[in-house]
Structures are given as C-alpha cells and as structure tokens.
Specification:
By secondary structure, this protein is α+β, with helices and mostly antiparallel strands. α5 (167-176) packs antiparallel against α11 (360-370) and α6 (182-194) packs across α10. The chain is globular, with a radius of gyration of 35 Å. Residues 35-457 form the Topo IA-type catalytic domain. This is DNA topoisomerase. Its EC number is 5.6.2.1.
C-alpha cells in the first residue's frame, strides 16, 4: 500500500464490528474498497441538513429574538428531522388538551371458588356509556345467586424470546427501564465499544448471519457471578438459534464481547452492559411457555370471564425476569354446567382518561416508524429539542412541550404543514437510501430537494406574519420585558435587562438590542461610563469562585478597535487610557494559553483575583489586602507588570509589620506564596481552556508585557506549576 504507483488505488476500508484481535485481523486480511455511493448518500444528507437548517434557523432567530424578550431560548432552530420530532410531541400535547373525558360504567362480579378463596370476573361487554342501561344489567344479574360455567379452556402458549438487539431497541429500553436519555445512552454504549466490551452499537440489524459465532461471546460469560449458571446450562444443552430478524446489511446486532463486572464498569455503564448481555443470552434461550386457563360464566343473561396463567417453562425469562409472565392465581378445576355461589355483583363508575405525554421510548418508536433520522442521529434530534427548550423532560422521562415548542409547531402548520409533518423527510430519506444503493443520482436528488425547500423557505418568509400572530399571544415584546438596568449612551434613558436566554439589553427609545455574555450574572458597574460612547458599564460574573469583568454594551457588540473581538469585555479592550481596559489592568501573558493575558479584577477585593481574558485560568491572591493596583513599572526578569499591594496591618505577610509592597506576581518570592492558580468554573466560550487561539496577544498597550514571543523564564513556570489545582 505504501509503495503503490500513482495509477494504483491506495485507499482501502477495513470493516469490523468489534474491537477484538480476531475481528481486527480478519478485517485487515479482507480489506475492501470504500463504497462511493454510500459516501455520496452521506454527503447529500449533510448538505441538505446544513443548508436547510441554517436558512430557516437564521431567519427565525433574528426575526423573533428581535421582537420578543421572554422566548427563553438562545436559538430558534429548525431542522428537517428535528422539527418533525418536535411535531410528534406537540401532536400528543394537542390531543391531551382537546380530550374530553366520558363517564362509563362497568359490572364487576365475584364468585366463591371455595371457602377461603374467591374469583374476580370480567364483564364480557367490557363497559357501557349509559347509566340506565348499566343499571338494568345490574338489576338482572343481582337477582341471581349462582354463576354457571358455560365453557372452560386450557391452552399452552409461548412468549417469544426477543429479537437480537439493535440501536433503536437499546435506546428505547435505556430510556424506559434504565432512566437514561437517548444521547447519554448512546455515548455510554460508544464508550463500552471503544473499551472492547460490546460490538459496534450503531446498527439497524436484528438478525445474526449464519456465520456468526454465537458460542464465542457466550463462553466469555461462563464464569460471570450473575448469570454463570444459565450460560453453562445453555452451553451444555445447546443454544437455541436466534429468531430471524431484519438484516439491514450494516453491522451485526449489539453483542457483549467480553465479560465485565459492576466494580469494573460502575454506575450507568454497568447497567447498560448488563442489559445488553442479558438480552444477548435471552436471544439464544428458549421461549417462555405457559398454560392459559379460561372459564366462561353466565350470571343471569350476562356473561363473565376469568383467566389464569401458569408457567410451564420460564425459558428466556430466567435471564430477563422483568419479561416473565405475571404470577396469577390458579383457577379451580371445573366443567361445563358446574355452579359457583355469587358473592357480589356491583356497578363501577369510571371515566375515560387522556393519553399521557410521549415518553422518549415512544418518541423513538414513532421516529423509526416514520423514517425520521437514522439509528445514529435519533438521540441527537431528541437531545436538540430538549437543549433548545422546545420540550422539558418530566418524571418517567416524558417529554412535555414548552410554550415556544407549541407555538412553533402550530405556526408551521399554519404556514406550511409539510415543514413539520414527517412525510416529506421520510420521502427524502428514501431518496438518500436509493443513492446509497446506486439507484438514484446524487446531483439530481440534491438539486431537486434543495429546490423544493428553497421554494418553501421563500413562502415561509413571506408568510411569517401567521406565526408571529401566535407568538404575540404567548410572548411579550422586547419593550415590555425585563427590568431597567443601565443607561443608553445615545438617548441616556434606561435600557432594560432581559434575563431570559439569550440575555441582552434593550433600549426601547432607540429600538436597539445589545447582546450580553451568557451563562453568568449581570449587574450595574458603579454607574461608570465608557469614555468612547458614554454607555454605562455593566459587570459580568460567573460566580464567587469564577471570574468577572466589566463591559460596555455598545463596544461589546460594535468593537471599536481592530484587534478587539465581538462579544468581549473591557479586559480585552486596548483603549490606552481607560481605567478598566486591558492596557491599564493587564499584567502579563497567561501561564497556560498562548494568546491570553492575565488581567486584574478590580471588583474582586478583598478576595482578589487575576484572570486570563481568553481561557479559564484564575489566580486567587492577596486575600484581605486593602488595595491592589497595577503599576506602570515592569519586572526586569519576565517583563510582566508589577503590582502595588496594601496589606491589612493585622494580617500582613511582610516582615517588620510592613503593609505595602510592590513586586511581580510571578517572580517575587513574597507574592509567590500568596498566589493560588485555578480554573474558572465558567461555560462561556471565552473562558474555555486550555485554548490555543491564533492571533495577536495583547500586553498593556504602553509596554511590551504579555505579548506573544515574550520570554517565559523557567523559574516563572516552575514557581506557578505548584499552584495548579
């Protein structure tokens, strides 16, 4: 392969479904060529989802976030799969809201089987919705003292073992029985796969090929403390061939590849592994067999029935006890014509109940049925509608739509129902599958689908007023949302702080909105103003142990300097004289990232902090000091700015009861003992680290401290290394 000529193919594909020596070696021996049609199908799906999603999402987000303040979502997204997924949840919600309960009546009879036992009989009519008719049936049966046996039957039945496990079934069970969300379950399964415990977890196949070695994985479990006896019995008596399922032509069903214990895996990984293993053993076990007995009774003119089940052979339910036939009281032996004394006949009043909200397991079933997404993408779509605040996960992992999710779906129905119905996406998926099979042209399918959605997008834009009417009913305009916080630099009136995502400031007089950093708290910063635009500064903080910095709402949205990025604060502003800027408060290059500068937080006293303006490094220093200032002088060793510190006289670390000291936070031996370097607890993109951003770092403007390329002495690094936590 390495020495191939230019005319020879040097790219091959190794196909394997588990990370074991046998599978890897076999795959390398049987290298094949990549399937060009499959690659084209994937490319088409990616391009369609990206272009369609971006167009609709960008338009919706800019349109509605510019009008309403309490949407509580940073992105009003649309997706060809995501939106039909949300549609299923809202459709169930609508059924619940429109449901009107009806009263019905049921007859319930009880007969004495012997002195100590009675049987509860079910009415053959099940229920009636007219009370007078139900009362009539009750009156005719209440007069009877005996129930006569009309027929008896005893029939042997079997409960089939499960089909081999595929991705969709694993996700369903993980949600309904293990309490794990689909996205988390998929991530856990992928981790088990990469560690070699299970086979590849993304598969649509529920059928083992004839050549698959079923005994190999089974022998791996022969000494497991939980199911060793069942496995040894299967190996001794011979395994039962799994049921014939669906062969999608991708990977074999999900199979355990080696034994593991709870102590080895721990927590949720163990619970998922345990289910996968039990399911595999169940597929090669025997069916559960039971005897079903039924007795039909007549009480006056009405017929009643009693049913009982007795297990003959538990089969696969030994390894999957939750699937076992429920234990029911055995029925007495009787023949036609026998009579039993009637103990009681009564009429019960009940009401029909609405359906419950969809569970994740039910939603996965609907998505699979309608062809929405693939086995790999289904968890992503469900996670997206949760992340966008379109639905909330309630107890029992039920998905309840929010106001935003409901309004969006109703708006789509009002403008173009095909945007939310599963039909059009299902048709697209079929075309993509035809590309993978070589039966459809990639460019034709891509071009036709894009043309269809382009027309739909233009119609959607022209008809957005229909959705806006629904939004007006449920959400408040920007001008009526939020609380007054800081003054606008243009009109000098108060701007309102809108805390709902995405948090922002809105000036109703100028009709302008200014985005703020997310995932933190915002408050007014001492009523100080920006020297460039006269806007009042606000203070962003990620918490007492994190970082904080002032920012000008206008400068953050319209950077005044070329090297200042949009969305940044005063700690990245290079204004030469502003007391809040990087030029005045910057100390030196960050010890962890290449482009960041450590900046003094002037609001952090008496628990002073120095934080990087790019990554999440925070240094806690000089606790209980009265005052900390950045000096105009620099360190002769590392060129960082010196700090002037006024210590508390009672707690001063200086010799001879001294209270004032000027030194380098990196090189000064007194300061080194007072610095504790940590990572800030912040999720804001500006603070994710350790980042290696490209671009020019900034010092303090009028001196070279902290610029990229500044010498970083070994003693500086070794002095700070001890403080990493």
């Amino acid at each position: 392969m390495n020495q191939a000529h230019s005319s020879e193919k040097t790219v091959f594909r190794a196909r394997f479904s588990s990370i074991t020596d046998t599978d890897i070696c076999t795959a390398m021996v049987r290298l094949g060529e990549p399937d060009h049609n499959e690659a084209l199908s994937v490319d088409a799906r990616q391009e369609l989802d990206l272009r369609i999603g971006c167009a609709f999402t960008r338009f919706q987000t800019k349109y509605f976030q510019g009008k309403y303040g309490n949407l509580d979502s940073s992105l009003i997204s649309f997706g060809p799969c995501q939106t039909p997924t949300l549609g299923f949840c809202v459709e169930r919600h609508d059924k619940i809201q429109s449901f009107k309960p009806e009263t019905y009546w049921v007859l319930q009879a009880k007969v004495d089987a012997d002195k100590d036992r009675s049987l509860l009989l079910d009415w053959d009519r099940v229920r009636v919705f007219d009370r007078e008719i139900a009362q009539m049936f009750l009156n005719t049966t209440k007069l009877e003292k005996e129930a006569q046996v009309e027929a008896t039957s005893r029939k042997e039945k079997a409960k089939q073992r499960p089909l081999a496990l595929n991705t969709v079934e694993m996700l369903r069970v993980a949600s309904s029985s293990l309490g794990m969300g689909p996205q988390h379950a998929m991530q856990t399964a992928e981790r088990l796969y990469t560690q070699g415990y299970i086979s590849y977890p993304r598969t649509e196949t529920t059928h083992y090929p004839e050549s698959f070695d079923l005994k190999g994985p089974l022998r791996q479990q022969a000494n497991h403390p939980y199911w060793a006896d069942t496995v040894k019995q299967l190996l001794a008596e011979g395994i039962n061939r799994p049921r014939k399922g669906h062969d999608a032509g991708d990977h074999p069903p999900i199979t355990p590849m080696k034994s593991a214990t709870e102590a080895e895996l721990g927590g949720e990984a163990w619970r998922l592994y345990e289910y996968i293993t039990r399911h595999f053993i169940a597929t090669i076990s025997h069916d559960c067999k039971y005897l079903q007995s039924t007795i039909s009774f007549r009480i006056g003119p009405e017929r009643f029935t009693c049913t009982g089940k007795t297990v003959i052979s538990p089969g696969f339910t030994e390894i999957m006890p939750w699937q076992s036939v429920p234990l029911e009281e055995s029925l007495p032996t009787c023949q036609r014509g026998d009579t039993f004394a009637v103990a009681e006949v009564k009429m019960l009043e009940k009401q029909t109940s609405p359906p419950d909200y969809l569970t994740e397991a039910e939603l996965i079933t609907l998505m699979e049925k309608h062809g929405i997404g693939t086995d790999a993408s289904i968890p992503v779509h469900i996670n997206n509608i949760c992340q966008r605040n379109y639905v909330v996960v309630e107890s029992g992992r039920r998905l309840k739509p929010t106001n935003l999710g409901i309004v969006l779906v109703h708006g789509y129905y009002k403008i173009d129902a095909e945007l939310v119905l599963p039909t059009i996406r299902s048709a697209v998926e079929k075309q993509l599958n035809l590309i993978a099979q070589g039966k459809a042209d990639y460019r034709q399918v891509l071009g036709h689908t894009l043309d269809v959605f382009k027309r739909k997008f233009h119609y959607f834009v022209d008809s957005i007023a229909g959705m806006d009417e629904l939004m007006e009913v449920s959400f408040s305009p920007l001008a009526a949302t939020g609380k007054p916080l800081s003054r606008c630099g243009k009109c000098h009136r108060f701007m309102k702080y809108i805390q709902a995502k995405p948090s922002r400031l809105h000036c109703s007089h100028c009709d302008e909105t200014y985005t703020l950093p997310q995932n933190g708290t915002i408050k007014l910063y001492k009523e100080l103003r920006c020297p460039l635009d006269d806007f009042e500064l606000v203070l962003w903080s990620s918490g007492s142990r994190g970082k904080s910095y002032p920012l000008c709402p206008y400068c953050s949205n319209h950077p005044p300097f070329r090297d200042m990025k949009k969305g940044t604060g005063c700690n990245e502003c290079t204004h030469p004289t502003c007391q809040h800027s990087l030029s005045m408060l910057g100390i030196g290059q960050c010890v962890e990232c290449e482009s960041g500068v450590l900046v003094l937080d002037p609001t952090s006293g008496p628990k002073w902090r120095v934080a990087c303006n790019r990554c999440n490094v925070v240094a806690h220093c000089f606790e209980n000091a009265h005052r900390v200032r950045v000096s105009a002088d620099t360190c002769g060793t590392c060129e960082a700015a010196l700090l002037d510190v006024d210590f508390n006289k009672a707690r001063s670390p200086l010799p001879g009861d001294g209270t004032q000291h000027t030194g380098c936070v990196f090189c000064d031996p007194i300061f080194q003992e007072l610095v504790e370097l940590k990572h800030a607890a912040s999720c804001h993109p500006m603070h994710r680290g350790p980042g290696r951003r490209q671009g020019r770092g900034r010092g303090r403007g009028r001196r070279p401290a902290g610029k990229p390329g500044t010498r970083r002495p070994k003693d500086k690094m070794s002095a700070l290394a001890a403080y990493f936590v």
